[in-house]
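Let us work through a complete example step by step.
Step 1: write down the sequence.
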Amino acid sequence: MNFKDILIHIDDSSHCAARLELAINLAREHGAHLTGLYVITHAHYAPQHETKKQQATAAEEKFRLATENSGITSEWVLADWGIVGVGMSEIINHYAHQKDLIVVGQTSSDKPRGDVPADLPERIVFGSGRPVLVVPYAGKFATVGTRAVVAWRGGRASARAVNDALPLLRNSEKIHVLSIKTSGDKHLSETPGGGICTHLSRYGLDCTGEDIVSTDIPVANILMNFAWDKGCDLLIVGVYAHTSGRTLKLGPVARQLLNDMTLPVLMSH
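Step 2: predict the structure and record it as tokens.
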């Protein structure tokens, strides 16, 4: 089963074009319909509606030029909600609930964000109920999922991530299931990734399980270095969260990945 309905968040950033190119390639590979979503929010202070309308028009033209002869079906959605105070993530999640896959960009820490919140990927992961492909702001990625790394820890989040990623994994040439055992994981079995490799092999997939013990190096660094060493173009992660007050917060591994990612990361919660 392939993804058939993909949503990509379109913004005014310079790296949006590379993200769109990846989404088009993915839609073509899966025979999927691609929806480009541009959001205009209305803050409680000085509105800049006309400026945003002009930016939206420019973004729509770029989207249509990119998709016109791409061999996919596509549509443009301008979400200009007139309700003051409704956040961008709430609007994107409203549309995301009806899609198979959501494509968003990593937040660039060294450039103005405009009305795009810095934690937008995090909010989409928590609120969309869908797998979210986060694309780094640096670099271009012609393929995604040709060779993949599954960060496997067991439990609900990991299981959900693998299941959500199956449409990508079923087109992979090679899958590496990487289990990283830290000092706090004494309860885990000696070969935690073996069972999920057996499961994936039943789809006819070439899957290898590897276990690493680490007490000093951050898990996110291990994952990214491993993906680089194996020539992978996708990392799959089940997102764990903790509650701070009344708010869900990312665990340290997912937070570092969102800050420092070097390849596309598929996140599920």
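Step 3: interpret the result. The radius of gyration is 19 Å.
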